[in-house]
Amino acid sequence: MVIFWGRPLIQSREAGKGKYGTRSEPSCAGRREAFSRGRCGLVFKERVKVMEEADIRRAVQRISHEIVERNKGAADVVVVGIRTRGVPLSLRIAKALSAIEGMEVPVGRLDITMYRDDLHTMSQPVVKETHLPGDIEGRNVIIVDDVLFTGRSVRSAMDAIIDFGRPASIQLAVLVDRGHRELPIRADYVGKNVPTSPGEKVKVALEEVDGEDGVYIGCEEE
Questions:
Q1: Where are the domains of the chain?
Q2: Which tens digit of pLDDT belongs to each residue from 50-86?
Q3: What distance lies between CA 55 and its chain's CA centroid?
Q4: Which fold has domain 50-119+134-221?
Q5: CB atoms within 10 A of CB 188
Q6: pLDDT in tens, 1-22
Q7: Could you tell me if 42 and 216 are in contact, meaning their C-beta atoms sit under 8 angstroms apart?
């Protein structure tokens, strides 16, 4: 099942919503530049590395065992990654589940662009492919993302999933939970809880996307 855009009436859901203020960013003078320029020409400046490659590998294994335990196996499990870095994480988890249970675990990818609650503020939203591996009706869908922050991306992902069918349950697995929730959302499976201030940035690097595995705390500068 492939779809390239979400519900057409998304703007009507946003009518009347207020605008949110911006948070001030901490100074990063003298910190090492760890990542290239991203959105708005900002550069991520690393302050501390909180997860190494081995930490991420162990987290994926632990999360996979917890998924098997909670769902009494993986026969009814579908793993779905939120683009971008949730996708390689979902593939790693699905591979680990398959190794544990001795069966292939279906895995998909989800683009949440058309379900975002700030879509009306985006001048030219870029929508990428969503692919779900067959029917999710009555299945236990595991949404996978790299970082859980405000909860808004996860809310968008749940809306998208429900548009495809009525799963038995929707569960959430994240590599990093950094706190500061704005919606009542909690992860079922967490690789690492990382305390942060609201103005800090958490950057997850994965081999499939970034050429290395690691989790960094830092900030963004022009």
A1: 50-119+134-221
A2: 999 999 999 999 999 999 999 999 999 999 999 999 9
A3: 18
A4: Rossmann fold (3.40.50)
A5: 16
A6: 544 444 333 333 333 333 333 3
A7: no
> Could you tell me if 159 and 185 are in contact, meaning their C-beta atoms sit under 8 angstroms apart?
no
Look at 43-52, 66-75, 134-143, 203-212 and tell me which has the smallest mean pLDDT. 43-52
- Cα 186 to Cα 47: distance, rounded to the nearest angstrom: 27
Which tokens hold the place of 140?
Answer: 């236990």
For residues 192 and 201, give the distance between their C-alpha atoms in angstroms, rounded to a whole number. 15
| C-alpha torsion 41→215→60→95, nearest 10 | 40
Q: How many residues does the chain have?
A: 222
Q: What is the DSSP letter of 23?
A: P
Q: Residue holding tokens 């081999």?
A: 207
Where on the phi/psi map is residue 67: left (φ > 0), alpha (ψ -120 to 50), or beta? alpha
Q: Mean pLDDT over residues 134-163, rounded? A: 96
- Residue with the larger pLDDT of the pair 106 and 22: 106
